[in-house]
Design brief:
With 162 residues, this protein is of the alpha+beta class. The protein has four helices and seven strands; from the N terminus they run E-H-H-E-E-E-H-E-H-E-E. The protein has a seven-stranded mixed sheet, sandwiched between helices. Helix 1 crosses helix 2.
């Protein structure tokens, strides 16, 4: 399995979009508001990769996972973590989060942060097993109910107090 950091020369934006949409498809009809992944295009993914730190995992020439990372003041935000449905339960999500942890440490950031929808309790459980803890509840604009939860994972970062 190859880990590749995305840059402007990446030629497979349409395939990456298909990976994300297929990975997030199980959410359709379960979450409200709908996933922002549905608004992505190949062009917007390329732009996103210019402003964020993005990686894909490739196995036998096939894109099997991706992750987009955005440095914040006190953490590294994890977004669009996607694993191809046919590649689930093979450690790809963990491998991608390992890349996120390495990136956070390289940037001297002491934590990872992500958001997951309130309805996706199975995601809450998986992220909990991976060391994330619930830290906040949020509502999307226009909603009066909780629509997502924020989770953080503290990291041991050399030179920083944890």
């Amino acid at each position: 399995m190859t880990t590749l950091r995305l840059d402007a020369g990446f030629p497979r934006w349409d395939e990456l979009l298909a990976l994300i949409l297929s990975s997030f498809a199980y959410m359709n009809g379960r979450i409200d508001p709908p996933s922002s992944a549905l608004k992505l295009t190949a062009e917007s993914l390329a732009e996103k990769a210019e402003t964020e730190i993005a990686y894909v995992l490739i196995e036998d020439g096939v894109l099997v996972g991706c992750i987009f990372l955005r440095p914040e003041a006190d953490c590294l935000y994890v977004g669009k973590l996607a694993v191809a449905p046919g590649a689930a339960r093979r450690g790809i999500g963990r491998k991608l989060l390992g890349v996120a942890e390495d990136t956070a440490r390289a940037l001297s950031l002491p934590a990872l942060r992500l958001e997951t929808r309130i309805e996706l309790t199975e995601n809450h459980a998986v992220f909990g097993r991976w060391g994330f803890e619930k830290t906040a509840q949020n509502a999307h604009p226009g909603f009066t109910r909780v629509t997502s939860i924020e989770m953080r994972k503290r990291l041991a970062v050399e030179g920083l107090a944890s």
